[in-house]
Structures are given as structure tokens and as C-alpha cells.
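Open question from group meeting: does this chain pack into something compact, or does most of it stay loose? Before anyone orders reagents, we agreed to write out a predicted structure and look at it together. Recording both the input and the output here so the notebook holds the full record.
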Amino acid sequence: MPMNQPANFIADAPGLDFLNSIATPVDVAVDWIADGEGLIGWLRQADLVPADILDEVAARAMPGELDRVADQARDLREWFRGFVRTHMGAALQANLLAELDPLNRLLARDEAYGRIGLRHDHGHGHLVYEVARRWRSPESLLIPLGEAMARLVVDQDFAQIKACEGRGCTLLFADHTRGHARRWCSMGVCGNRAKVLAHRNRKKAH
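C-alpha cells returned:
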């Protein structure tokens, strides 16, 4: 787990950020969820699970339990990567529902429940209806990942999901720019590399 290396959150869609939890920032592939510790760290960076819940689940976990959940998360990630890469570039069709059965099976394990809670706005407390979740086991950490993927499927126009054009880059993103002209995961990384390469090629041509 690259403890000192922040994960990539450039996709403008949490479901794609999950796919980008393995990437090649420089020359060697880095997997931020290579083990249980990495999974906890990535979920913390992604802000998909409250920090106190992550601490509590990690403290209760049996030896090796979080590593096994990380194994499941990586399997889920690569299954979903196949779905996204197969269907990106065009609007999703309703007849694809059967392909999403593994995701629906995961979501069916959720232990969410509604409750009346308290929210503070401008110094005043208000009663609100909110959805909470029971975190009975480390496997419950997979549910927020499933939610992020499900929201990508139903809320995102798959026609605007793109792969970075950078040489060797594996990152995906949702292009929400005006005119949908985004080409790079980051102009500061792959965009600049492409500019440098184009400049060198022009100099060689002359």
C-alpha cells in the first residue's frame, strides 16, 4: 500500500474513481486497495465511509478479514471495469440489466434503515429523516462501493465516459466539460506530457 501517495480522484464520478484505484502514476502500477489496510485508506480518502466507522470496523476485524474484503473489492472493481469499458461511449440500454446482476446481488446485502435525526443549520437544530447503516462486518464496506457503481450506471451518460489519451495511462473519467472536449486525466500530467511530445516531434520534423 503506497501510504504516502494520494490516490487518484480525477474522474468526476466516484464509481470511476473506484476503477482508478489501480493506476500507473509514473512507471509502475500502484494498487491502492492491494490489501485491507489499503482498502481502509482508500475509502477514507474517497470519503465514502465516515472516518469513525472505518476506525471501528478496522478495530473489530479479525486477522486477515480486511485483506479478504480487499480481495472481493478488487474482483468487483475488475468486473465493473469490464462492464464500463464494454459500454462506454454510448448511452446504456435497458436490456443490459441482466449484466448488472452481480452489482444488484451486492446491493441486496445492504443493512440500511431510516431514522429521525438532527441537523444543524445556522445554529438551529432541525429534525430530519435520514438513512443510516449497520456496519456489522468488514464486508459491509463493499456496500458504498456498490452504491458508487450503481449511481454511475443510472446517473452518468456513458457516452461521456472516456479513457485518458495519455500514453500508458489507464485512468477513466466522466467528461463534464463544455463541449465534452476533455482528453486527459489531468492537464498537469498527461496533458503536459502530450504537449512536450508533440513539441519534440515538431522539432524533429524540421
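Observations to bring back to the group:
The chain has seven helices and six strands.
The mean pLDDT is 91.
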